[in-house]
TrEMBL record, chain A:
This is Xanthine dehydrogenase small subunit. PANTHER family: XANTHINE DEHYDROGENASE SUBUNIT C-RELATED (PTHR42659:SF2). GO terms for molecular function: 2 iron, 2 sulfur cluster binding; FAD binding; metal ion binding; oxidoreductase activity. It comes from Nocardioides antri. Keywords: FAD, Flavoprotein, Iron, Metal-binding, Oxidoreductase.
From TrEMBL, chain B:
Belongs to the xanthine dehydrogenase family. Transmembrane segments: none annotated. Residues 776-815 are annotated as: Disordered. It comes from the Bacteria. Its cofactor is FAD; [2Fe-2S] cluster; Mo-molybdopterin cytosine dinucleotide; Mo-molybdopterin. This is Xanthine dehydrogenase molybdopterin binding subunit. NCBIfam families: xanthine_xdhB (TIGR02965). It holds the Pfam family MoCoBD_1. The gene is xdhB. InterPro entries: Ald_Oxase/Xan_DH_a/b, Ald_Oxase/Xan_DH_a/b_sf, Ald_Oxase/xanthine_DH-like, AldOxase/xan_DH_MoCoBD1, AldOxase/xan_DH_MoCoBD2, AldOxase/xan_DH_Mopterin-bd_sf, Xanthine_DH_Mopterin-bd_su. Residues 27-133 form the Aldehyde oxidase/xanthine dehydrogenase a/b hammerhead domain. Keywords: 2Fe-2S, Iron, Iron-sulfur, Metal-binding, Oxidoreductase.
Amino acid sequence: MESPSVTVNGRTVPLGAVAPHTSALDWLRGVGLTGAKEGCAEGECGACSVLLARPGISTPTEWTPLNACLMPAASLDGQEVVTAEGLGSAEDLHPVQREMAVRGGSQCGYCTPGFVCSMAAEYYRPGRCARGDQGAAAREDHHDGEHGPNGFDLHALSGNLCRCTGYRPIRDAAYALGAPDQDDRYAARTHEAPPAPRATRVAREDAEFARPGDLEETFALLADRPDAALVAGSTDWGVEVNLRGTRAALTVAIDRLPELRTFEVTDEHVEIGAALSLTEVERRLDGRVPLLAQMFPQFASRLIRNGATVGGNLGTGSPIGDTPPALLALDAVVVLASADGEREVPLADYFTGYRQTVRRADELIRAVRLPLPLAGLTAFHKIAKRRFDDISSVAVGFALDVEDGVVRRARIGLGGVAATPIRALRTEEALTGQPWREDVVRRAAEVLTQEGTPLDDHRASAAYRSAMLGQSLLKLHAESTSPQEVPA
Amino acid sequence: MSALSERPTNPVVGLAIPHESAAGHVTGEALYTDDLVLRTSHVLHAYPVQAPHAHARITALRTDPAYEVPGVVRVLTAADVPGVNDAGVKHDEPLFPDEVMFHGHAVCWVLAETLEAARLGAAAVDVDYEPLPSLVTVREAIEAESFQGGQPHLERGDVGSAFDEAEHVFSGELEFSGQEHFYLETHCSLAQVDENGQVFVQSSTQHPSETQEIVAHVLGLHSHEVTVQCLRMGGAFGGKEMQPHGYAAIAALGATLTGRPVRLRLNRTQDMTMSGKRHGFHARWRVGFDAGGRLQALDATLTSDGGWSLDLSEPVLARALCHIDNAYWIPNVRVNGRVAKTHKTSQTAFRGFGGPQGMLVIEDILGRCAPLLGVEPDELRSRNLYQAGQATPYGQPVGHPERLHAAWDQVRASGDFAARTADIARFNAAHPHTKRGLAITPVKFGISFNLTAFNQAGALVHVYKDGSVLINHGGTEMGQGLHTKMIQVAATALGVPLEKVRLAPTRTDKVPNTSATAASSGADLNGAAIKNACEQIRERLAQVAATRLGVSPADVRFDDGEVHAVAFSGERVSWEEIVHAAYFQRVQLFAAGFYRTEGLHWDSAVMRGEPFKYFAYGVAASEVEVDGFTGAYTLRRVDIVHDVGDSLSPLVDIGQVEGGFVQGAGWLTLEDLRWDESDGPGRGRLLTQAASTYKLPSLSEMPAEFNVALLQHAPEEGAVYGSKAVGEPPLMLAFSVREALRQAAAAFGPAGTSVDLASPATPEAVWWAVQQARRSGEHGHVAEGSPGVVPDQPGVDAHEYEPESERVQHQLSRT
């Protein structure tokens, strides 16, 4: 095994004996790259954002921005990282840096290197069409106000917080970016293969980080170590480590396992590998599952979606999670794998209690399957304080089959109203076989407000949560009957 | 034009240039305090032991178990303090407490070789607590009559008879939330004892001089034995005016005791649970209008939630009282103020410093009363704006009110206000599930420290033999662009290009006895001090140049790096040549500058005087759209005209206006500080103590259309190069968002519906407001007629208002 090392801004740097709890951020700062900052240590502010060369979809490699505060430093072994310092220098600014600087995109400057990395990734995103010449017409296409005339998707910056500017100059900088030059080295890099995942073992004191090479090796490792912490993206685990001081004797990274990175569409189902990031799933599905397409932009931030995986989201067993309510509505099936083989569990049977599931310690979530065909009327409603990057007070996934004005089948998934994500079974029953009509919907909405046992907390009152369940069904009905009168 | 405000030809001030550190920001090369750790050897890391009670007595503190954790070097406790065990200026903030006053209070600090070891060491410290009863909400404190500090009283006219004669009298209550600063860079200090025995503290502080004084008094040293430097801050917003001192003192104490550099950087959770925030307030009010909707009388009691110690609560309250009029003429006014003492973090300065809280009360009153008066809110506000010749309730004439009216008219015109109001009425009539609202609100904000003595500043300017210029001043850079403006001021005053001037970091051994960079005054005060220093040098150089050019010194001009005689097309000599010549003529090429704001006076005991040099004005119109299903909303368009006088640096100023507005909108609509108010074991704990639970505005809260203009032709006579302060006033432009939300919520009910809106107006709060409007006929909680809700009057035994900070700044007690 090679001694662990990382390519940082084009130079190979030995990782050294890093502890498994040491974040990529602390490691980078420790080797002198202090551009990336710690603002929150939980992947909310993006001040630590750096670029990784990750496998792409339309090009072999894509520059993928991630929260360095959440990634274990050891997970960087064999990877290529670029930081704000690597993009340019004061004497030779990168185009993103130049736009940010001249337009007043920085005030205190603390969040700026992170913004620059997130913005640079979107600058290099394949398929970002620079349509500056179409001007107003291009803007008209994107009446949501979240895309620039140059194709820049503002959601690329949804995981970066700035407390000074009010964002206008940052948006202007993003929208002013042209296409990368022909000789741009970072653009050129995307046309070559990404760094291969490297099997890694880093031990320090009494704690160890391991990245097994394949599934078999993973099972062998887990057989001996039921105490291992499985990490597939680390966006949840990193928060535990940083904010709650959780430490594991063995951390096992499974997010690069090839067996967990499948993506398949057959006549019967869509199979989504558990270790695909949410961004990868979003891009590969490309709108084929409208309910998920509606959910993705509301799931945390782009920075988190670049790291977080579908398997990880189900693995943590969060009562909210955001994918579970959507996947429950889609009748998803969880594929669990162990040394003994695979088993399939309907997602509705998967959760057993607060952060508890049927998954055994020797099992991995290998994939999630969505049965086809999909329901005709679907929606994902997220109630939160903030539109970008917030945790749901309540999340509702709807999948209804309405034929000839009658609800033939209803699946409604709820998050944030019980110890686990749940199906709204009584509401489903109240709708099934009934006409899709306002009076029926009103009665069903009453039933929906009674589902679950919402709590009062800092996000919302129980009364509001309950009310929002019913309101979401009313809104769905209003949208499906007179869409122009309903707020987006 | 005064000498202070007059600009020379070709001034460098007024140019729209990027932040002086912009290239450093975008490349990550700009250094902040915590970035220096890597450049320092053998650094120890500090970690606090935080108490898990809102109020408790510490009955035992055992540090031995911490020493068993590998890497732990020292545990700092009260016994280690050689000087004064206090982190503030009022002797009510023990650095190491024996009584826990809020959940998360640091009782001692662990120093270790690594942060991980320090964390584990802190977890190992064994503390016994005897829990005591606690007050967590401002209402609990009012009930228990738990107040601290003086109780100011501001009165003008005859409130009693005014109410008797008023056509309409309304009364009500309002309680609103504070705000977490959430500067992206948390509190940080790095302390060491240098090769000369000097205690050197690098600190993220807005107030290096006070940090220096507190470090000195904790260590039992004189100020000349301590140097504090602030390179730059990753945001501050008032949160680093008083709060950094204790952390700097801990680091310095550790450094002197161990002989090693000590780094103290709070993580976000520690920062949010330990450091002070914007004060939340409770207000009880009665208001009287005449038949035309003109304000006749206001009687109000404001109670701020000060937290466990006084900190800056008294001056914050004073500013709240001085801003309850906002931009409106109220002939008869009585306002009482008091500071509740609660078991929470000690609330402190935050952009606006009480001004926003006072102004929120009157804007809320107008927003709630307009429908009851049958007057459109914009019309009601417009009718009550100050006119020429009127004075504030504390007796200061309102200067240039025509500029306020000009800004108002400009926003209405450029924002197409009348047409859009009509469009919105049509939209609302056609959309049962969605309503829009458009509101316009003014800002009038007094500039200067209320306490006259703070309105002074110093600077140090060096011209080197090669003509390069190094400037130093007492202000700190927190992102507001002060250093950018100061370089522009120096280049203008010396008549040299921008590139000739370099600015060195703020240090207490360069400019002493500085005021905090606060009260929006940084550019006014330090700019004038730099200008003064530059002019001393320029006058000396003019003598040299006069001889060289054969003209009178009065006719010498310095312009863009050249020196020439006025009205002569003749010889032009380079700046470098004159500097070089001056050196050989033994002319002093450096100077200390000083400035004090003239014409201020303030009697805090009776709350009368002219505490402000001038007022900054602004007007904003905001349009929102509310989803009737959920209460979620979007900010569709914002139009702002703001008065910065004659701008020193337009890119910087527009950035301040926009950033202040969005931060204000965050306070009023999104940022939701929640404390555990239950009787459970977590009582008093801050529940929203992380970025995941305390949500700041993100790009999704930015107005879809955001038009910001600076008011033209508005030079300020009394400030450097005709400019005005800009840091704080724009925050309060965000009232327009809150009022637009109120109007949109009201549109779900019948015409004339008065709506109560909680603050912050989160989607949930807006939804409840919509529900209230839908229950047509209810008018919230505004009581009509007399006596209604009567504001509390101070008791006979209430403290006289003479804040301690104004009697004595410091009492250095030494051991």
